[in-house]
Design a protein that fits this description.
Pfam families: Asp. This protein folds into two domains: 182 residues, Acid Proteases (Cathepsin D, subunit A, domain 1), CATH 2.40.70; 183 residues, Acid Proteases (Cathepsin D, subunit A, domain 1), CATH 2.40.70. 9% of the residues lie in helices and 40% in strands. A hairpin with a 2-residue loop joins strand 7 and strand 8. It is globular.
Length: 389
């Protein structure tokens, strides 16, 4: 497809795209606590991904970490955790609602006051969007770089809508849904993309399998973005999981049950007891970076290479020794979590209205975009082999 033909396709489908700046961030993992398709590109923040939104009139742009593990939008003016704090006093269109909120993380918590304001996202202006202003945090790792808060994309909590629900209510998309790719794009120089209300069929290979979303029992009443993780395959061995695994773009690492975690460590030559490098075990990507494990989601198989579990966080790690990005789910309330390092190998479609999630193997060399709106259900997706409807 010629460049002008691609531009026409984007204009016709109202695809809004823009580039963001790459920067490294070390941040604690999260607890699991139409016809037009707004799209924005993402940049990998050392396995965190951010998106830019404009807040207020006149707008000021802020970068927020993309998080499917929560539903609230929050931003902080606390300079102890953000180098790009929210301009609370300069924002004359914010309106405090009198409500307060609290989010607990694996390490730390955030207290905030709710407000409403104008939000500009991918060229679309939304009115009276609720968001939290975090005046106080406790034991939170800094949001390094120029990140100012979080953009939650999970199911709406209380009476507050999530961003895709607002886009739907304003008529920009037909369905509370979105699709995410974390594959680097040579064309746009971005580290991935998100399409609200649509799907790009060029971003995956093989079948697109869908699943009914599952709840996490320990979260009680909260709806989760999780599907069944049946088994993990490696080196001719099978490790049964048979638990809902939460998909969390806001989690740097992924978490497996203890037996599977120890087996994965052994398979990749990782000494889980050796945590001399900033408290984390290391993987030697020259020796085991090309080895593959396979995750079985009710018959849908996703392959992940060892090098995708290698995190470039700490100066103690040499060019071939990297922090190992898999942890024991004892550290995540016994909930298996599919974090950003595994999600890089997947294309994921979240249909919150239909309460379904679709997955496929990511296409690392996608061709021209093949974007289709999500109207009634996820296009071209079929139920996974071991899902019976």
């Amino acid at each position: 497809m010629m460049e002008n033909e691609s531009k026409k396709q984007y204009d016709h489908q109202c695809i809004i795209s823009y580039e963001l700046t790459r920067s490294l961030v070390f941040q604690n993992d999260l607890a699991i606590p139409k016809n037009s398709l707004p799209q924005a590109e993402l940049f990998d923040r050392a396995y965190f991904y951010s998106i830019t939104v404009g807040i207020g009139l006149p707008k000021r742009d802020y970068k927020l970490l993309l998080d499917t593990g929560s539903s609230d939008i929050w931003i902080t003016n606390d300079t102890t955790i953000s180098n790009a704090p929210y301009d609370y006093h300069g924002d004359l269109t914010r309106k405090l609602t009198g409500e307060t909120g609290l989010l607990r993380y694996m390490m730390g918590l955030v207290n905030f006051a709710y407000a409403t304001n104008f939000f500009e996202f991918a060229g679309k202006t939304l009115r009276d969007v609720p968001y939290g202003i975090a005046f106080k945090t406790k034991d939170m790792a800094p949001l390094q770089g120029d990140t100012s808060g979080y953009l939650g994309l999970g199911y709406s909590s209380s009476n507050r809508k999530n961003l895709p629900q607002y886009l739907k209510d304003e008529g920009y998309i037909k369905r509370n849904s979105y699709s995410i790719s974390f594959v680097f794009s040579k064309e746009t120089k971005s580290d991935g993309g998100i399409i609200f209300g649509g799907i790009d069929h060029s971003k995956y290979t093989g079948e697109l399998y869908k699943f009914p979303r599952l709840n996490i029992a320990t979260l009680k009443k909260k709806k989760s973005l999780a599907i069944k993780l049946s088994e993990i395959y490696m080196d001719g061995k099978t490790f049964k999981i048979n638990k809902p695994a939460a998909f969390d773009t806001g989690a740097t690492m992924s978490y497996f049950p203890r037996k599977a975690y120890l087996a994965v460590c052994e398979y990749f030559g990782v000494d889980y007891k050796d945590t001399r490098a900033s408290g984390y075990p290391l993987i030697d990507i020259e020796k085991t970076g090309d080895k593959i494990i396979k995750l079985d989601f009710a018959g849908a198989i996703i392959a992940v290479q060892g090098k995708d579990f290698a995190l470039d966080y700490f100066p103690e790690a040499s060019s071939n020794l990297k922090v190992f990005g898999i942890a024991n789910s004892d550290n995540s309330f016994n909930v298996p979590i599919i974090g950003a390092n595994i999600l890089k190998s997947m294309y994921v479609v979240y249909d919150l209205d239909g309460e379904e999630i679709a997955i496929a193997q990511a296409n690392v060399l996608p061709g021209p975009s093949k974007i289709e709106p999500i109207v009634d259900s996820i296009p071209q997706a079929k139920y996974a082999p071991h899902i019976y409807k």
